[in-house]
Amino acid sequence: MTPSLKALQAFETAARTGSFVAAAAELSVTPAAVGQLVRTLERRLGRQLLLRVHRGIVPSEAGHEVLPRLRAVFEELDAVSSQLTGRVVPPRLTVSVPPSVATGWLARAIAEFVEAEGALDVSLRCDEDPVPFAHERIDVRMSYGRFHYRGENTREILLDAVHPVCSPAFLARHGPLTTIEALLAVPLVHTDWGPSSATFPAWSTWLETAAEGGGRHGPHRGSVANVSKVALDLAIGGLGVALVQGLLAAGPIARGELVVAFPHALPLGQPYCLTVAETSLQRDVAQRFATWFAEACASHVAQMADAVAAVLPGMPVLPGMPVAPRARTR
C-alpha cells in the first residue's frame, strides 16, 4: 500500500528539524501525531527511518537514502501548487559561509550568480562551524579547514594567504614600508582568532616567515579585532597595517581602498572547503552555485596577482604574493 502523503511529510520534517516537537510546530499538529505518522510509515515500509538519540532524532541509513528525493518531491509539489494558484514562487538557495566571508566578499559577489539564474531567492547565512544542515535547510556551506564535515560531500576549493594591507593614506603618511624595521615602527592591526582557532596566522607567524624577520618577537602596538572583516575595515579606516585574506582584500584593492603594504604573503594553514548538503545533491541550482562559487573565489584571489603584473610588468609574480605600488611621500 502506498504511504500517505501526511506520513511522508511528517518523516521529512522530523528528519530535517531533528525532533518531533519542532516538526509538530511546523506542521501545526501535536508531537504525538508526528510520532504516530512516522511509526505507521515505518511499519508499512518495513524500514526504520529515524533513530531516537539523546534529546532528538536522526535519520537512519535508509532514511538518508530517501530524504534527497523526498525533499525534491515536496519542492515540486509546492511549485505545482503555486502554478495552480497563480503564484510565482522562485526557488530558494540557502548558503552558509563564515561571517567575514559573507560581509567582506560574498554579499557583493553573489549578485552575479543571482542575475545569471534569473528568478532565485537566496538566503545568505553567517555561521560558525559546525552548521546544522538539515535543521536550517542549508544547501551549500563554505568552511575553513578539512575537519568539519568529513564524510560529507566536501571538496577543497581554495588555499588562501594573508597579506599586509593598509589604506593608501596610511602608506602615504608612514611609508614607504620597504623593511621589516619600518613595518614594525607603524601601528599594526592584530586579529585575535580565539582559543578554538589555532591555524590562522598572527603577525608573529608572519614575521617568522618573512625574509628579514626570522626570530623576531610579535609586535604588540596597534588595534585588535576578533573578526578578519573588522581587521579589514580598521585597515581601510587608516588605523594600521592588517593581515587579511586575499579573498577579502582583492576587492578593496581593486577599488583603491587598500594597498599591499609589504611584499610578503603567508599561506593559511588550512584550505577553504565547500560542502553540498546530502539533501541538495539533486538540486541543479545548488550544483550550479557550488561550481560558480569555487570559480569566483579563485578568480577573486587571482585579481591581486593580475594587478601586480599590470603595475610591475618586469617583476615575477608568485602565487599568493601580490604587491601594490608605493604611495608617494611628500
Low-confidence stretches: 310-330
Annotation field: number of helices: 12
Mean pLDDT: 82
How far apart the termini lie comes to 85 Å
- As a whole number of angstroms, the C-alpha radius of gyration is 25 Å
Class by SSE composition: alpha/beta
Please write the string of helix (H) and strand (E) elements. Answer: HHHEEHEHEHEEEHHEHEHEHEEEH
Whole-number tally of structural domains: 3
CATH superfamily of the largest domain: Periplasmic binding protein-like II
Largest sheet: 6 strands, mixed
Strand content: 15-25%
CATH fold type of the largest domain: D-Maltodextrin-Binding Protein, domain 2
CATH class of the largest domain: Alpha Beta
Q: Count of DSSP E strands?
A: 13
Question: Can you tell me about this structure?
Answer:
This protein is an alpha/beta fold. It folds into three domains: 5-63, Arc Repressor Mutant, subunit A, CATH 1.10.10.10; 92-158 and 271-302, D-Maltodextrin-Binding Protein, domain 2; 161-267 and 303-311, Periplasmic binding protein-like II (D-Maltodextrin-Binding Protein, domain 2). It contains twelve helices and 13 strands. Strands 7, 8, 9, 10, 11 and 12 form a six-stranded mixed sheet that branches. The protein has a five-stranded mixed sheet with strand order 4-3-5-13-6. α1 (5-17) crosses α4 and α2 (20-27) crosses α3 (31-45). The radius of gyration is 25 Å and the shape is elongated. The termini are far apart.
